[in-house]
Fold these 3 entries.
Entry 1:
Amino acid sequence: MIGDPLEPGNWTWGLSLIALTIAIHATGVVVLALVSFRIRVRIANRRLGPRYVIPIVIGLVAATGLLLTVLHGIEAAIWAAAYLWLGALDSPLDAILYSVDSLSTRGASGLTLQGDWRLMGALEAFDGMLLFGISTAYVFSLMQAYWLLLSRRH
């Protein structure tokens, strides 16, 4: 029976999607880190005061949060497309709602996957924890790097 939780195909789909979304997320975070580093070097070289640096840092953190949200949305859409393709959900709207709900580990949409594909929802929640952990760690490191820059200015 295809889609049985103990069937290797269910695990194969889930683990493949986890690997894909983590690779996408890591790529996005590395690009953000490179851009952030260039901005930090420019600020350091210009020896700007806190009244200039603080708004730059606020804007950078806000932009980073927005871009990470877009990444999470793309990753949820990938899971949703898989659910539709596998027949685990019937509607694109339900698929994206279920996926965002699972990826965020909220789990309150009331939607469930068809038949034996339910294990994939749990795997998506696990993926979401990893992805949000990567995002949180990156935002923390970004703020820490800029805090060092700001603290040297006082």
Note: Residues 8-46 form the longest helix (39 residues).
Entry 2:
Amino acid sequence: MYPITTISPRDRQLLEGLAASNTVAIREIYDEVLPSIQYYVRQNGGDDDAARDVFQDALMALYRRLGSDALTLTCSLKSYLRVMCRNLWLKRLRRDTREAGVLPEGQEVADLDDSMQQRMEGAEREGLLWRHFETLEAGCQSILKRFFAGESLRNIAQQMDTSEGYIKKRKHICKERLVASVRADARFLELVA
């Protein structure tokens, strides 16, 4: 159904319930995850209303990803939602800080240094790229892997016993497919926003 790996049967049931807009499953997700989000947001300058807003945003983003088959889950649902909420809360704090120019009294932003944030965002983009790369047919993967590794088109053509012109054309087509696939992913829009 979804490209979800290493997931418990309970989490799969909750995700399927969320995808089907099942109110019982959604209530269970709220009951299991929201208290920890409220605690985190309160500890970082927010209140329960702000925590509910952030949690709702995260749940809607998760719902959209389920609808577009754009989810690869390698941790528990609770951990996944907590990370999403933490990122949304930090993003909101940074945005509010920029707009106001100052932090409200007693509020601290657990701000990552720019290089750390750039590395994290780069890793997310790279992960997205490789997930889509793995959906390409084997021939495309082979050509692009060799090309990305710095191998010349001439060498690739010789090893594949074909012409350099053919390899050049295939590389272009494969690369275009990869780019189109990545750009169609809802996560891509989040990462470039």
Note: The CA atoms of residues 130 and 172 lie 17 Å apart.
Entry 3:
Amino acid sequence: MDDNLSNNSKNCVILLCAGKSQRMGKFDKTTSEFNNKPIFLYSLEKFLSNDQIDEIIIVASEQNKVTIKENLPNSHQKKVTIIQGSNERKGSVSNAINYIAPFQPKNIIIHDSARPF
């Protein structure tokens, strides 16, 4: 288990980035660029700028883990943990909830990173 989470965590975000984008021609929406920035970064930056958010869990696919990690702001890497996603959204959410459950967060916010606005 990663040491980024602590028992003091209150508000955790699960940012879903493991989708296959099947309806979009099977390209990765979350790491596709929009205005010279990967789409997932729009949501991530909003959560990072919110002082009510204690921890962010990014659920990534095996194919996009490296791209996501390369685009994380260095100053916030301690607040963000990347975990493995699943073949389906419900499996990715389940993986993330199981990951953070031992830390008993007060609130869990689940967001689909492909819809940043």
Note: The beta strands are 11-17, 55-60, 80-84, 107-112.
